[in-house]
Amino acid sequence: MRRYGCLLFGLLAAAALAPVVWLVLSTPASPSLTNLKAGEHRIEMLRRVPSSATELAVIPSSGGVIRAARANRVTRKFLDEWRAESHLPLMPLLLGGADLVVWRVGGQTGYIARLDRVRRALFRGYRLIRRGDALMISFDDDFVIAVSGRPEGAAARAGENATPSAWPLGLVDGVDAHLFFFQTSQSALGYPPIGRPAATYGVIEPDAVRLVSKSGLRSDTMARTPISMAFRFPAGALVSAGFVEPPKPLKTVMKIFPLDLLPLFDQGGGVAIYGIDDRKLIPRIHGVILLPESKRPAIEETIGARRGSSFLDSLAPQGEQKRMVNGIEVTRRRSLAYTIETAVAGGMVVVGFDRTSVEQYLGDPLVASPHGAIRPGWTVRLRPDELEPLLSRLEERDELRILASDLHDAIRDARRWSRLFENASSVAIAHSVEGEMEVLRAVVERSK
Q1: For residue 364, how many C-alpha atoms fall within 13 Å in the half-sphere facing its CB?
Q2: Taking 60 as the threshold, does the pLDDT of residue 196 lie above it?
Q3: What share of the chain is helix, strand, coil (3-state, %, to 5)?
């Protein structure tokens, strides 16, 4: 009799554990590269998205993607915040290999997934537990639909739905990726800094995320000249960039330097910022400007015109000092009004405006721009984990907002990027025009 009791207990335990084992076995251990158009059910999912939605994400094999995002140090914090805000059990086991579509309508977020019977039953139980809160869960054939956010936005789900053609799916034709993100012309998100509508697709690696964004050409983009040189980033700089025409925040920052070298960027150039002294009333930028060696005569002419141009210059001798740094000659010119250092390295003229930045640059290893960029119009590398705290302090300074509003606006714009990638140690972005498309490539990394 005891043996039959043990057998019965074993059968009951096996029956109880069988669904759990099945959930584990049917959940992908890792994401797989997927072509978005491979599967008619995705079209059915997109037909259930409200026409008023401005952003849309499609995550094929969502359980595997969420597992990869949880293991990735760049995306882990973002995923945790998303799960906390959504009020949904966005766990790999409950999603399995199902596709997940996420959309936004104002302050409201919606989710749709095509689940198997076991997982639909689990979501029905979850709906009973969470009854009465701001989360609405409904079922339509094989699809589970959930909406979270402001209650007044709930009507958006029940209103007119968009057709799949409303989204720029053609921008990702033939692309295999782990996730896809689309924005309409009404999207207010700051990233990516290209035209709208736009499409972004991404691949999650163990310590990096690779993103490619595309949009149709804007009229102002067609006229931009690509960089004629191969720009490489100094690894130790907080911000480094190569461009012909700088992005607006960098243009504002460069105006603080004592020399106006922007007219010499017709063939491209760069800037590297190593630090910002926020103890000053107006922050002092520590960094260098980089120009092709062919621009050396024009640079010397600009420096010559600067010397003696102010009252402070006349109060101190303006001699030159030379020293060797890593086998390269560095020339320093000083007065009470400024310090300017110059050197020539790797076919570039390096111009610094303090005592340390040129030396830092000459000792810095150089890293390449994001792979695959074709004749970029500009390229930028950030170190958000160190840059974000500094920009946060500067943005909170009321006197900066009053005395240097343009600089304060540039800092605010830079924070939009650094805050988006604040858990990364490096973000490299390259913008280019390829055929009839504007393309932005980004590599987001976290050092071990």
Answers
A1: 23
A2: yes
A3: 35, 30, 35
**Contacts of residue 381, Cβ cutoff 8 Å, sequence gap at least 6:** 233, 237, 239, 240, 241, 367, 426, 427, 428, 429
Q: CA–CA separation, 273 vs 261, rounded Å? A: 16
Three-state DSSP state, 190: coil
Q: Is the pLDDT of residue 260 over 50?
A: yes
150: which residues sit within 8 A by CB, 6+ positions away? 106, 107, 108, 134
Q: What is the pTM of this model?
A: 0.83
In this predicted structure, what is the pLDDT of residue 205? Answer: 92
Over range 192-213, report the average pLDDT. 92
Of 57, 78, 79, the closest CA to residue 66 belongs to 79
Q: How far apart are the C-alpha atoms of 418 and 395, rounded to whole Å?
A: 13
DSSP 38: S
Residue pair 215/191 in contact (Cβ under 8 Å)? The answer is no
Q: Which residues contact 242 (CB under 8 A, 6 or more apart)?
A: 227, 229, 231, 268, 269, 270, 290, 369, 376, 378, 379
Q: What is the pLDDT of residue 361?
A: 95
Reduced to 3 states, what is the DSSP secondary structure of residue 364?
Answer: coil
Contacts of 146 (CB under 8 A, 6+ apart): 88, 110, 111, 112, 135, 136, 137, 138
Q: 209 pairs with which residues across the strands? A: 204, 444
* Beta bridge mates, 379: 242, 430
The pLDDT value given to residue 288: 95
Q: What is residue 374's DSSP assignment?
A: -
Q: Which two tokens stand for residue 434?
A: 């390829």
* 3-state SS, residue 322: strand
Q: Tell me the average pLDDT of the chain.
A: 80
Q: Tell whether the model's pLDDT for residue 233 goes beyond 80.
A: yes
The sign of the dihedral angle between the CA atoms of 10, 12, 15, 16 is negative
pLDDT at position 68: 92
3-state secondary structure of 160: coil
Residue 198 · residue 440 · CB < 8 Å: no
H or E stretch at 419: helix 405-420
Residue 59 has phi, psi (to 5 degrees) of -120, 95
Using alpha carbons only, what angle is made at residue 380 by residues 216 and 227, rounded to the nearest 5 degrees? 70
Q: How far is CA 27 from the centre of its chain?
A: 29
